[in-house]
Design a protein that fits this description.
Blueprint lengths: L1 E2 L3 H10 L7 E2 L3 H13 L5 E4 L2 E4 L1
Antiparallel strand pairs: 1-2, 3-4
């Protein structure tokens, strides 16, 4: 799941994910990895929340 907290992040996610609504979208692992790499290219801060908690990337 992608959860967006900044206005800049909201605009980026909205431009890249048609199914995104109200700050959250559910992705497959491959899609999430690709999204995190792309977000990093735009200097957006990202984190991954796994089963054992949150890891800042």
């Amino acid at each position: 799941m992608i959860f967006t907290v900044s206005d800049r992040g909201i605009h980026w996610i909205a431009a890249n994910f048609d199914e995104w609504r109200s700050g959250e979208t559910l992705l497959k692992l491959q899609e999430a990895n690709k999204s995190l790499r792309e977000a990093s290219k735009f200097s957006l801060c990202t984190s991954y929340k796994g089963l054992n908690g949150k890891t800042i990337l």
